[in-house]
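Final paragraph of the annual report: two paired records, presented back to back.
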Amino acid sequence: MIDKLISKYNYPIYSINYIEDVKYYSLNNINVPSVTSILRHTNNKTNSNFSNTKITNSMEIGDLMHNYLEDYIHGRNSMKIDSKNFSIAKKLAETVIDNIIVNFNEIWGSEASVSYKNQYAGTIDLIGILDKKLCIIDYKSSYKKKNIEELEDCFLQCAAYAIAHDWQFDTNIDSIIIFQVIRNGDFEKNIVNKSKLNFYKEKWFDKLENFNVKIAKNND
């Protein structure tokens, strides 16, 4: 475990299941939808049916990168996989470590699950104190940088996590950062501070309402 990791809160471990193409977290035997499923099913730009989607190289690299970072933060020896995708994921993870994780004053949680009432749940990539502010980080790996418009769902995702964490643990999250790490070694920090974060929180609640209406119609 790296010395910056502090057991500030006892983050719960939820079981996960899928029902009709929606990912659910089980909270005391109550199924609540995941943040990512809510966004996917309320995004008119994409097809919400992913039931036949295969695991792509990009998805595998993203998963391997997250696993590597989780092991690093907790001081575990990462499983070494003799594959091209693991080599790519390791280099991306090292970029994240060198350019943001080492800058944290305190790390409160990594892959930390949170929930908001019985309405939704999700998993935060990283949360802690950065530049004297309580901050949520979301890692994204890709071939090219995304602009602000393309990152909107990422901002909404982190806004949902901020709402849940503040409600669940009585915190006051100051900012969210989307840390984009690119295959060529570049990276970019997309920072959303308090005032803009409130904007995304309001927009998230609109998404949540739309999702609930959609599910209710489908169940009629």
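The closing record of the year follows.
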Amino acid sequence: MNLTFQRLLKGSVALFGSVLMAACGAHSSNPSTETFSVYEDAPKLSLLDVGAPGKSLGDVYHFSAPLHSERGGPVTGEVIGSKTLVKMATDANPNLERRATLLFFTFAGARDQIIAFGAADYSPAAAEFDAELPVVRPVLGGTGKYLGARGQVTSTRNADGSYTQAFTLLK
């Protein structure tokens, strides 16, 4: 190999290695996190009964509620969502059914959004999950200030029907 080609090859390898290290650094296995909570008023629920009358797969609760950055503070956003029945209670487990919940958290006139989606167990007799038992759902993404958001949101229903939504977002 001639000397010029060797130098070019070494330079290319060094450049490729630098780019690779920079790219891997952006997806480090030890990312920093941002945590914050918002407080949700008790949601207004509306049941859409699909299929056979009464409880059946595909039944959907639609809901919305104002969000506050502190309890009792001014409204800073809104949550809009739906809960779809995806697994009926069984004879082996008659007290639990599974619902897939899609949540849109909107802030700043809906310019800043966080989208979360996950499944959790519910009592077949109730529209909402039990108070004080947190449900964790993955954050799928976001827009505006939350562009590229990933992480999780922990939803805790309070005794008064309101919710605390605790976000852990990876940067």
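The radius of gyration is 23 Å. This concludes the annual technical report; the extension proposal builds directly on these records.
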